Automatic annotation (TrEMBL):
Name of the protein in question: Probable membrane transporter protein
Organism: Raoultibacter timonensis
Cellular localization per UniProt: Cell membrane
A Pfam family annotated for this UniProt entry: TauE
Stretches that traverse the bilayer: 42-61, 73-102, 122-150, 162-182, 188-206, 218-236
Alphabetized UniProt keyword annotations: Cell membrane, Membrane, Transmembrane, Transmembrane helix, Transport
Keyword Transmembrane helix part of the UniProt annotation: yes
Annotated family: Belongs to the 4-toluene sulfonate uptake permease (TSUP) (TC 2.A.102) family.
Highest taxon of the lineage: Bacteria
Length: 237
């Protein structure tokens, strides 16, 4: 029963992921943690994040902004490693709450304002570095990365695909780490195999659904999900 419920939540989460290019694991992780346990959920969602985001990237290969992808990955990775180290030496619950409040505020601000206001280039570099740092500390740097990407890539297809390619790379790294830590037990591998066809269907469905969403509605959906991510961070802190 637990596996069936998780797969249902996974299908919904990864359909959203395919539509927007982010937020899939934010929806799936709380359900997975309750039903399967934290370490199993992390291992499954890292593996499936690599598979589903990689599949979506391959399906829309020409829409990836390779220059921005290289910039994002090469900037974030060193800070991800620093964040992973900080996670071992600092109490981070207070920082997580502050981060959640900031993301909620940004989501609300962008939903309510009529015109999108652009940040200066130096601020975008800072946000990208912070996205890597937060990803390393909390595995939740996606919200900051969305703030960066929504300004740099205003075409929804490039936005989705460049984010998807980024998650494919980062989830692969985390999946390798989880494998080395022994998180891929027999049960975890079984659920991963069950999720593969579900991920294929969710990715195909989400990819079709996003074509019916205008650029303006896509941007609003992005900020709604950003607000949801902030709330989830506050709840989990």
């Amino acid at each position: 029963m637990e596996k069936a419920l998780f797969i249902a939540a996974f299908f919904f989460a990864y359909t959203v992921q395919a539509i927007t290019g982010f937020a899939g694991n934010v929806f799936a992780m709380p359900v997975g943690t309750q039903l399967l346990g934290l370490s199993s959920s992390v291992a499954i969602l890292n593996a499936m994040g690599f598979f589903a985001c990689g599949l979506l990237t391959i399906m829309n290969f020409k829409s990836v902004n390779w220059r921005e992808l290289a910039k994002i990955v090469l900037t974030m990775l060193p800070f991800v490693l620093i964040g992973i180290w900080l996670d071992t030496v600092l109490p981070l619950h207070i920082l997580l709450r502050i981060y959640g409040v900031i993301i909620v505020a940004i989501g609300l601000k962008n939903l309510l304002q009529k015109r999108q206001k652009f940040l200066p280039e130096w601020a975008l570099w800072v946000i990208l570095a912070l996205a890597g740092l937060v990803q390393g500390m909390f595995v939740s740097g996606g919200a900051l990365l969305v703030i960066y990407t929504v300004q740099k890539l205003q075409d929804k297809q490039q936005f989705r695909m460049t984010l998807s390619a980024t998650w494919a790379i980062l989830n692969l790294i985390y999946a390798v780490i989880a494998y080395q830590q022994g998180s891929f037990t027999g049960d975890v591998i079984q659920i991963v195999l069950m999720c593969i066809p579900v991920a294929v269907i969710a990715t195909w469905l989400g990819n079709r659904l996003q074509k019916k969403i205008s650029q303006e509605k896509f941007l609003k959906l992005t900020y709604v999900l950003l607000l949801f991510v902030g709330v989830m961070l506050l709840v989990s802190a």
